[in-house]
Amino acid sequence: MTKNEAQQKLIGLLRKDACEATTLVKHYADENEKLRHMLFMAHGSEEHYLYGDDGERTCNTCWIDFNADSAEVIERKIFAYNMRKIAKLQSEGKWPPEFLRQANVKITGDTLT
Ligand SMILES: [Zn+2]
User: Fold this and answer.
1) Which residues contact 66 (CB under 8 A, 6 or more apart)?
2) If you measure from the C-alpha of residue 64 to the centroid of ligand 1, how many angstroms do you get, rounded to a whole number?
């Protein structure tokens, strides 16, 4: 094999790898888009008011932007919302709920504070 033939073969392999990488990137981008949409749709509830006009996908309760926020930021916002919710319930004397108090008594013999 001449030097030119070896270079042409290498260029062909690199083009094939680049094409496969592009296909993979497109595949995972499509998967990401679909999973974000499914997460957005599953997130809505009586507590979480969704806004989905004009391609937007946000929660007006915990301020998640399902289009722009990373998975880590989404997780952090959900955790922060749940912590605020528990703090509010504790301040109202509603946390832990009775079923958790009963379960804790059965498991440990203690009552939750
Ligand atoms: Zn929310």
Assistant:
1) 36, 37, 39, 40, 43, 57, 58, 59, 74
2) 6
Q: How far is the CA of 77 from the centre of ligand 1 (A)?
A: 8
Return the sign of the alpha-carbon dihedral for residues 105, 109, 112, 113. Answer: positive
Spacing, Cα 81 to ligand 1 middle (Å): 8
Which H or E element spans position 83? helix 71-91
Ligand 1 centroid to 57 CA: how many Å? Answer: 11
Q: Are 37 and 47 in contact (CB under 8 A)?
A: no
Q: Give the model's pLDDT for residue 100.
A: 87
Extract the residue ranges of the chain whose pLDDT is less than 50.
none
Provide the pLDDT for residue 65.
98
Q: Please tell me the predicted confidence (pLDDT) of residue 104.
A: 82
Give first-to-last CA distance, the chain, whole Å: 79
Tell me, in angstroms, the distance from the centre of ligand 1 to residue 31's CA.
22
